[in-house]
Amino acid sequence: MELGTLISLTLYFIVMLGIGLYAFKESTSDMTEYMLGGRTLSPKVTALSAGASDMSGWMLMGVPGAMYVSGLSSIWIAAGLTIGAFLNYILVAPRLRVYTEVANNSITLPDYFENRFEDKSRLLRVISSVVIIVFFTLYTSSGVVAGGKLFESSFGLTYETGLYVTAGVVVAYTLFGGFLAVSMTDFVQGCIMFVSLVMVPIVVLFEVGGINEVTQQISNVSENMMSLWVDASTGQALSAIGIISLLAWGLGYFGQPHIIVRFMAIRDVKDMKVARRIGMSWMIVSLAGAVATGLFGLAYMTKTQGGIEDPETIFIVLSQLLFNPFVGGFLLAAILAAIMSTISSQLLVTSSSLTGDFYQAFLRRGASQKELVMVGRLSVALVAFVAVLLAYDRDSTVLTLVSNAWAGFGAAFGPLVIISLYWKRMTFAGALAGMITGAITVLIWVFADLTIDGQPLSAVIYEIVPRFIVSCIFTVVVSLMTAKPKETICDTFEEVEREFDKV
């Protein structure tokens, strides 16, 4: 490893750990502080924290890799995500911030579901917690896989060593600093990612010789590479259902606990508009940079007759070839930032479910705040350990792992979150039916040995689409078939409406 690269990465690690130490001293005295930062996040930290925790290693590895292989047709995913993120800020963010505070100061999503429907059986809490633990462990594993690939391809270390280094640093600042450390490191990491995703494609563009030369080199690979309607990797035209599947990634936003928890933590709902503007600007520029990195990288490799074994490492390869070691180290830190920002958020959300939704709810109802924080830290370490074990399957692609977890969350919680925030008539039975039937739909779509015209169901249409539809239908139908919600639930809903109207 070059000395300059080593220095850049060392400084990055020191900053991350320093933030963790600061947060440890400032905001880890009780569960609300450890898991939600005391609801004190500023708009800029909220926005970049939500963005950085969302755009994990798949944005610097998965998206450029998809563009490198499939061409411009993969841009439909980026379009769907942009639309979904914007609607999430409009439809979910402000109402969820108000509702979670009014509904008994809910600090986790399962906590909100239980308080929203006054669920004495605690079924909603248990089922949603299980979904969070299972899918986030898988999601966290995708980040660790990305870290392993980074250290292997860039530093000559073994894949397994990369897993341990990635997980170790993230666990250190997350375990001690809690939500505030995660949010502050996300802010710094978001800035690093933004600069890198602007810098790399611009430099590559000049190296290749301008946009016309880029277009020519890409066309030399395949005339379909610059087509929005044809998947260049297969040569097949995208069907309407195929485009819907790619756009449907945006549906996942409404149910991602590690993203919407940022909305719950912002200091004032009135700050949400500023957060939306910052967050969407950051996202649009960053996604455009990721798309350009894949396409421009293909043009550069074609012109120089270079080659790469794994298309998902194109950002890494470009950072090593075109920049001096100090800058290259900064760019590699951007990938680590993308990976770590998401892992830390997922570890904390999973820890909050294990601690609040299982340990406190069923094992130690009278546990002190100090004890709960300790259990939360142990949970962070436990989930990280399991994620590393799962990551030993090095053949898993980052985008595939994220795709499965994203669909699981978006489908499990998305309809439930939206309908619960806008429809007073929604009942506990409707919520339970929507969550269960949607989860079953996803499992059938992914794992059942069923085909349409010889293709598996997940290859026909992204599983989040049928799951979202099924969940909405069952939620509404079952709610209408069961008794109206209790008067106290309706009163809380109306209180939220009044508070929201003030804003």
Automatic annotation (TrEMBL):
Reactions that this protein is recorded to catalyse: L-proline(in) + Na(+)(in) = L-proline(out) + Na(+)(out)
Q: Which Gene3D superfamilies match?
A: Sodium/glucose cotransporter
Q: Where in the cell?
A: Cell inner membrane; Cell membrane
Alphabetically sorted, this entry's keywords are: Amino-acid transport, Cell inner membrane, Cell membrane, Ion transport, Membrane, Sodium, Sodium transport, Symport, Transmembrane, Transmembrane helix, Transport
Q: Which Pfam families match?
A: SSF
What GO CC terms are in its UniProt record? plasma membrane
Domain of life per record: Bacteria
Q: Which InterPro entries match?
A: Na/Glc_symporter_sf, Na/Pro_symporter, Na/solute_symporter, Na/solute_symporter_CS, Sodium:Solute_Symporter
Ranges annotated as spanning the membrane: 6-24, 75-92, 123-141, 161-180, 187-206, 237-261, 282-302, 314-339, 372-392, 404-423, 430-448, 460-481
Record's PROSITE patterns?
NA_SOLUT_SYMP_1, NA_SOLUT_SYMP_2, NA_SOLUT_SYMP_3
Q: How does it sit in the membrane?
A: Multi-pass membrane protein
Q: Which GO terms describe its molecular function?
A: L-proline transmembrane transporter activity; proline:sodium symporter activity; sodium ion binding
Biological process GO annotation list? proline transport
Asked whether the UniProt record includes Nucleotide-binding among its keywords, one would answer no
Q: What PANTHER family does the record point to?
A: SODIUM/PROLINE SYMPORTER-RELATED, SODIUM_PROLINE SYMPORTER
Q: What does this protein do?
A: Catalyzes the sodium-dependent uptake of extracellular L-proline.
Q: Which family does it belong to?
A: Belongs to the sodium:solute symporter (SSF) (TC 2.A.21) family.
Which NCBIfam families does the UniProt record give? Na_Pro_sym, sss
From the Swiss-Prot or TrEMBL record, give the protein name.
Sodium/proline symporter
Q: Which gene encodes it?
A: putP
